[in-house]
Specification:
With 217 residues, the protein is an alpha/beta fold. It has 2 domains: 122 residues, Rossmann fold (3-Layer(aba) Sandwich), CATH 3.40.50.2300; 85 residues, Winged helix-like DNA-binding domain superfamily/Winged helix DNA-binding domain (Arc Repressor Mutant, subunit A), CATH 1.10.10.10. The chain contains 11 helices and 5 strands; from the N terminus they run βαβααβαβαβαααααα.
């Protein structure tokens, strides 16, 4: 059975480009559904064929009108697929709300084709990107000393250490050497931090933050 991929992008040229990126990233048989907006994406997700096999990879454009990309990501927070935000903006003011809405990672559409292929492969392998600026914001958002240790939103000591090291500009492999562990374990801590950020965030607040950032621009 082919891997089903949903690409949500209102620009036809960009949709074709992202389709090529996904094809180049996998040797598996792929089945694509392209949606030019949230309505078409919602229809595709509700289609009987989707219920039978489901999408395993969803690429969602953040530059859609009325914050439709963030809205869709928030709706899909519990959908069992890898959900990737695609955007032209590399600053954390635009990307952080997507992570708060449950994105599994992000791709910058202006990157070179081969860079996007490599980044997509890394995300699918469970190695989501996290810049120093994003790590600092994640720490600030998840720093809640009043949370009990067993709260699903609370960072573990290792997760906190990984985010601190990332915020200082260290790479995953450098952090693994410092902590005396494998880089795969560091990647797992980053994935857990992504998940906890989504748990700790209200999608409405994330969309308001994005709207405020756009107004400031």
């Amino acid at each position: 059975m082919p891997i089903r991929v949903l690409i949500v992008e209102d620009n036809a040229v960009a949709r074709g480009f992202l389709t090529r990126v996904v094809r180049e990233s996998f040797s598996d048989e792929l089945s694509f559904v392209e949606a030019d907006g949230i309505e078409a994406a919602t229809e595709a997700l509700a289609h009987p064929d989707t219920e039978a096999s489901g999408f395993r990879l969803i690429l969602c454009d953040l530059e859609q009108p009325e914050q439709a990309g963030l809205t869709l990501l928030a709706r899909l927070a519990n959908y069992p697929a890898i959900r990737i935000a695609t955007t032209l903006h590399s600053d954390d003011d635009h990307l952080f709300p997507a992570l708060q809405c449950g994105a599994s990672g992000y791709l910058l559409k202006e990157d070179r084709f081969e860079v996007l292929v490599e980044e997509l492969q890394r995300i699918v392998r469970g190695q989501p990107p996290l810049s120093p600026a994003m790590a600092r914001r994640m720490l600030a958002c998840l720093r809640a000393p009043d949370l009990p240790e067993d709260d699903p939103r609370a960072l573990s000591a290792h997760e906190h250490e990984v985010l601190q090291q990332l915020s200082k500009g260290f790479t995953t492999k450098e952090i693994a050497r410092t902590m005396g562990t494998k880089w795969l374990s560091v990647s797992e801590h980053i994935r857990n931090a992504y998940r906890k950020l989504a748990l700790a965030s209200a999608p409405q607040q994330a969309m308001m933050a994005e709207a405020t950032g756009q107004a400031a621009d």
